[in-house]
Specification:
Blueprint (H helix, E strand, L loop, with lengths): L26 H9 L8 H14 L4 H14 L5 H5 L3 H8 L8 H21 L2 H5 L8 E2 L13 H13 L6 H10 L3 E2 L6 H14 L12
Parallel strand pairs: 1-2
Length: 221
């Protein structure tokens, strides 16, 4: 995700206070930050949605993708990989004539190809979720960044993911795109220290992975 920061704020010197990770008045950006970014996703269709959108985001801003997200959902059959994998040349031309999405023929064709490989991975692993979350051992990585200047564009994990996805035939899955995908689906929680949404996600993740006996409402027998 390409985050557009306010030029009027020195983020590297921001005090650790309970504010959003980035300054914006865009309601779509606010909702995305507060409700989606960094929240662990384990639904296969939702994972495919972010994979498709991150591919289209290459070279443009994420805010543009958010504005067109509803159009993408309609044009790509609700991000159903089964339906997208069956797209033919007529579908390619239909999408190329759809002004509501980004009309890039290479990215559109890659989406169809990626849908087919996505289904192959589902057949191999049972779910795409099991495959993709395997890169982080099934658990979200929590970073402790205090400013965006500390945040990497890619990581060792995103490079490994990129390498394996490309080996399987995926397109538009470079290490930077993979890291953005990891941030989007909560494989990595990069909310800055002091962000209330990040803290909320941490509590949610910790409650899932905490031993039952550590819960005072659910003591061990």
């Amino acid at each position: 995700m390409l985050i557009v920061l306010s030029p009027n704020i020195e983020y590297s010197n921001m005090p650790l206070q309970k504010v959003r990770c980035w300054d914006t008045t865009d309601p779509l950006y606010i909702a995305y930050h507060d409700e989606e970014w960094g929240v662990p996703v384990h639904d296969d269709r939702k994972l495919f949605e972010f994979l498709l959108l991150e591919g289209f985001q290459a070279g443009v801003s994420w805010s543009l993708i958010l504005r067109k997200r509803g159009n993408f959902r309609k044009a790509f059959d609700g991000f159903d990989p089964v339906k997208i994998a069956r797209y033919n040349e007529n579908d390619i031309e239909r999408l190329m004539n759809d002004e509501g999405i980004l009309r890039n023929r290479l990215k559109i064709r890659s989406s169809v190809r990626n849908a087919k490989i996505f289904l192959d991975i589902q057949r191999e692993f049972g779910t795409f979720d099991r495959y993709i979350w395997g890169f982080v051992g099934g658990e979200s990585i929590k970073n402790e960044f205090k400013s965006f200047s500390e945040m990497p564009a890619k990581s060792v994990t995103s490079e490994a993911m990129c390498k394996d996805l490309k080996k399987r035939g995926f397109k538009f899955v470079g290490p930077v795109i993979c890291y953005s995908f990891m941030q989007a689906v909560g494989m990595v929680n990069d909310h800055l220290v002091g962000c209330p949404t990040g803290e909320k996600i941490n509590k949610m993740v910790n409650s899932i992975h905490s031993p039952k006996g550590n819960d005072p409402d659910n003591p061990r027998d």
